[in-house]
Structure formats: structure tokens, C-alpha cells
Design a protein that fits this description.
Elements lengths: L6 H4 L9 H4 L3 H4 L10 H5 L17 H8 L10 E7 L4 H8 L4 H4 L7 E8 L11 H18 L3 E5 L4 H8 L5 E10 L9 H8 L19
Antiparallel strand pairs: 1-2, 2-4, 3-4
Helix pairs in contact: 5-8
Length: 222
């Protein structure tokens, strides 16, 4: 096992000059993925907090994160991802519209994040034919966003707990744009500010199933 991650490892750029462990020094080691063999530090450092720092974060601050999505791979370079985002400090009305899409469980904590965002996928090509890989391509884009955010000292928490119908109507999505996930973005905050039943999950080590549970050699079950 290698030594604990440093600011140089995690945030070569750093949002507002801060490395991730500046926001949550006790969590840097706890939340690091126990990867064997080791993986890139930015990948092992990524996780999904619920406690976010109360800071002003603009969409311009997220330009590198959106740029990472821009350069994600997609089938036939169709780039079907769509993001609707709002900063709490610069667009409170837009932020409230996004917050109102959340289901009650996520509404308890997610609106404390500086930025909320809907991740959606355009499902039809200009000629009306379906984009069969739209959801896959969106996932690739958000995956690249999450790594870039970690490099910036920012963190994403992706949520399935939202009302897609409300999102479509409230945010004015066209029929061929499918809402897929809500995302909270910001620097890590203080877990003590979370509702009591969520604090333990915030500070516990992460777990994953073993590789041989999902890697099949040559055929399923192989």
C-alpha cells in the first residue's frame, strides 16, 4: 500500500488554490480506494460526498470540468450528452428549479452543494433515427467530468433519486432529451452538518465487489 495522497497527487490545478485534503484532511485516507493493484491517484481519490462546503462556485469555475466532458469519446462522434446546470450563488432561481427535481431523500442534503446539474442524453439523431449508445456515451462524459473535478479539488455526487417528469417539464427539455441523473458539485464540506443518519456513511471506508465478480474470461461465467 502506497503512502497517503498529497495535494500534488490529487490536485495539480486545484479549485481556488485548494487541494482536496485541505477541505477534508481526515477523509483523504479513509475514502481512498483500496485498489489492488494500484490505480491512478485521481481515480482512487474520487468518491461521492454528501457534505459540501458553503462556497460560491460559478459555472465558469467549472469550465475545465465541462471541457473534460466535451472531449469524451462517443459513437460516431455524436456527443449526445446534455447538461442543465445552475450555481446557487449566481442563479438561485435556476438552482431552485433543479433542486425541485430531487426526490425527498436527496433534497435533504444535495441543495447544500454550490452547483446542481441534470445530466441528460439526446436520444435521436437529426434524421430521427435513435442513438443506441446515447446513455453509454453520457456515462463516459460524466466519468471524465468526475476525474477532472477531482483534479480541480471538486467532487461530484451523482443521483438517480429525482423525478424525470418534473425535470423534463420544469427545465424545458425537448422530447428527444432523456433525463438520466442529477449531480451535486462542490468542495467537500463538514460531515457533522449532515442529518445524523447520513453522517456514518460519509466517513466510512468504501467497498467494492471483487474483480472476478464482474470480469468474465472468454464467456459469461468464465
Amino acid at each position: 500500500m502506497s503512502e497517503a495522497l498529497t495535494g500534488e497527487d490529487l490536485a495539480p490545478y486545484g479549485w481556488n488554490g485548494h487541494a482536496p485534503e485541505d477541505w477534508a484532511p481526515d477523509l483523504a485516507a479513509i475514502k481512498r480506494a483500496a485498489a489492488e493493484p494500484e490505480i491512478l491517484p485521481l481515480l482512487s481519490a474520487r468518491w461521492s460526498p454528501r457534505a459540501f462546503a458553503d462556497v460560491d462556485l460559478s459555472l465558469d469555475d467549472l469550465a475545465p470540468v465541462f471541457e473534460a466532458a466535451r472531449w469524451a469519446p462517443s459513437a460516431n462522434n455524436q456527443q449526445p450528452w446534455v447538461f442543465v446546470a445552475a450555481s446557487r450563488s449566481e442563479d438561485p432561481e435556476g438552482f431552485e428549479r433543479l433542486a425541485n427535481c430531487l426526490l425527498p431523500g436527496n433534497r435533504r442534503w444535495a441543495p447544500r452543494a454550490p452547483v446542481l446539474m441534470l445530466a441528460a442524453a439526446r436520444t435521436l439523431r437529426p434524421d430521427g433515427k435513435p442513438i443506441g449508445t446515447a446513455l453509454y456515451d453520457l456515462g463516459l462524459a460524466v466519468g471524465m467530468m468526475s476525474v477532472q473535478a477531482t483534479a480541480e479539488g471538486l467532487w461530484l455526487h451523482q443521483m438517480a433519486g429525482f423525478d424525470a417528469g418534473v425535470a423534463t417539464g420544469t427545465l424545458g427539455l425537448p422530447e428527444d432529451v432523456q433525463p438520466v441523473a442529477m449531480i451535486a458539485i462542490g468542495p467537500i464540506g463538514d460531515a457533522a452538518e449532515l442529518p445524523e443518519d447520513l453522517r456514518g456513511r460519509e466517513i466510512s471506508a468504501r467497498e467494492r465487489q471483487p474483480r472476478d465478480a464482474f470480469v468474465h474470461r472468454g464467456r459469461f461465467g468464465g
